[in-house]
Write the structure tokens for this entry.
Amino acid sequence: MSGSGMRSSKNIHLEDSRTRLWPCTGEGIRENELELVSYVSESAWKIEVVPDKSFASSVCDEIVFSLNEFLEDGESCSMGLAGGSTPGVVYRSLSRPPYTEQVPWDRMRLFLGDERFVPEENDQSNYRMIRETMLNSLAHTGVEVHSLDTSLTTPEESAAKYDSLLRSFGFSLQRGLQLVLLGLGEDGHTASLFPGGTLQTDQTRLVGASRNPSDHTERISLSGPFLQAS
């Protein structure tokens, strides 16, 4: 979820160890309805359209189920968080009962899928949005959070630092995050991978710098190949 609408589905039991929640606008989607697209296997996707009033709870149900499924097989679980305006309602719900009691947050590692190259206190900062809608309420849980350092001189430096951080946890183009929340913008971008850019096919980096061609803002984003590995 990183831009326009993140679409949601209740209690989808995924068969694969990888999940992506995409905001999609599809034909037949009526006003006040949302759609969740969940990655099930190499060739299968689960799509369900729900009323927008069920959006937050539907997505939270899916997230909680997936996180606990992953945690059955490991000591910790990694999740990539989407930015933009849509995810806030999901993050608020996820940080409140009953969901706070349904996830062992002290076993979670949270990363950002992308970020604008602005200070953390800027109102355009994805980290600020995530902190205000979710992390402040989870501060007592021991959840591990890794934001991008946008205080450096260039977005390329910030991207390289985050790339090194991810590699220090053993992530690579062959081993991605266990759960990633993504969105789909009106121009077709996801995370901060914009049409015509090179980062979506870069086979050397987990994280790179990009630029939004519509407003020329500098971004940092997980690369296409790393998202594909997730």
About this structure: The CA atoms of residues 211 and 218 lie 5 Å apart. The longest strand covers residues 33-39. Confidence is low (pLDDT under 50) at residues 1-33, 37-41.
